[in-house]
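A reminder before we start the practical. When you read a complex entry, don't treat the lines as separate problems. The point of joint prediction is that each chain is placed relative to the others, so the output describes one connected object in space. Small molecules and nucleic acid strands, if listed, are placed in the same frame. In the example below there are two entries. Take a minute to note the order of the lines before looking further.
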Amino acid sequence: MSEQQLEESPAGEARPAGTGAGESPVDEHIVELGQVSVFLENRPGNLSAVARVLADAGTNLRALTIAETARFGIARLIADDTDRALAALHEAGFTARVDKVFGIQVPDRPGGLADLLQVFDGNVSVEYMYADLKGAGTNSLLIMKLEPVDVAMEILADAGLY
Amino acid sequence: MWNDAAQRLPRTKLRELQLVRLQAQVARIDDRVPYYRERMAQAGVLPEEIKSLEDLVRLPFTSKAQLREGFPFGLSAVPRSELVEVHMSSGSTGKPVVDGYTRGDLELWGDLMGRTLDMGGVGPDDVVQNSFGYGLFTGGFGVHYGAGTIGALVLPISSGNTRRQLETMRDFGTTTLAGTPSYALYLAEYARDHGIDPRSLGLRKGFFGAEPWSEAMRHQIEEDWGIEAFDIYGLTEIIGPGVGAECPEHDGLHVYEDHFYPEVVDPETGVPVPDGTEGELVLTTLTRQGTPLLRYRTRDVTYLIDEPCRCGRTSRRIHRLMGRTDDMLIIRGVNIFPQQVEEVLLRIQGVAPHYQLVVDRHGSMDTLEVEVEMTVDCFSDDVADILALERRIEAELRSALGIQATCVLVNPKTVDRATTGKAVRTIDRREVRTHV
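Here is the predicted structure of the whole assembly.
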């Protein structure tokens, strides 16, 4: 993670006014989303506890993935209310932060993902991604961490994918 | 027996010898070591006032912290040109403790370790495989000099290289193994895993120390190897191994009282307790030349056994060690203090100094897991960042502790916070102590 991104996404900072998921539209099919990531200790019941905290806070999840290693995991999630989710997790003693990721709609058909990646043409690195495949209408919503962010923004704006 | 006369000295003669040596040593220390001269003046004691062994209690204690302050040669009783060898022991923080040896000290060391091996029936026909580490720590050289003194053939193989240890036993007809008890267990396990029956290698004796071990472990080692296993005791500050050892009765360890005067004291008050009562072992060197010590607090817990031993040796015995008065752990033969972990964590930016040590034994090798609390400062959405943090912590711990530890990141506030008394929780799951 670059220094710049650490500055942009300090954990726990209040999000600017926008939608509950911290959305900042880039264009009709592309938004920047606030993603909550949570440290998961490799202990039975830990993930369950995180899920219960979010449930008790009235959080509904739009997308979710867990990256695992031998000794720990990181849950990454897009919540309907980013601030509320973060606050609930901190209060319950979990380590969580918010980072900006891209939410990109692509047609829900074969080639949806492949066409998007072709546009990047090696100039953008996909750090990680996951998806809300029944996303929006006839489109799937891909959630992607892209580097470098400014290059990704430019390419996506010019892409004329739709 | 080796040093036969010395080992069978009637107790009254032994005590006379101890007094004469103590008086000479105190006078010498007062004359040559400014640090002790000052401490004795503070305690209001003059060397000539030591008229009986009971007067020993008038002398001040020496602590490990005080030895560290003297790094490197502050407590030396001889000019540096007379020191010919140095060994060191790690400290909890800051400087290690240095033991400087004169030529005479090395001869004494060889003699006492020769006594140790001889007590276990080792002689010129034996082949001693020394798997204690050679280097600044005392285990390797101590056994080496001892084997040399009694004329056994020593194989200075040092620690590690397990496959080679076994090959060497075969190639050279090893009869005697020296090392840590956990390594003996590990070596046997490794042998069996590779289709070798350790009992077929022809070993007869083993001398093990540098870490606490129980009767159960002794039986296991003896079973595994078909050997007779002897417990040996020492500490770098005093001389290294060679402070005491078991005789064939295996009923406590004889302290080499002609050279090191033992006391057992209440760790809180410092008042000597009666023989048979548990307390902290305190040792005074009677004949050391380079770095003599008065009433050194070992932090080892044991009791003195006054009854004569069936073997005929007249030296008092101590019970096998029963614990520590401080936080120190011995893991794979290495002294570890929890405070060392704290220092490492404080050095790494963003990491909270909240940790817990979990010590366990898998098979025969000790394992150390350091649980460190995750913080928002060091958390990332990127797995690679956190893996890098784990690796960095492990590398720093390896460098500071001298052994490999596993870093496990845990949720915040799961580790006990510091309260009064012990600062950190250590969970030691090993069953290594014989406790009465």
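Discuss with your neighbour: Confidence is low (pLDDT under 50) at residues 419-423 of chain B. What might explain this?
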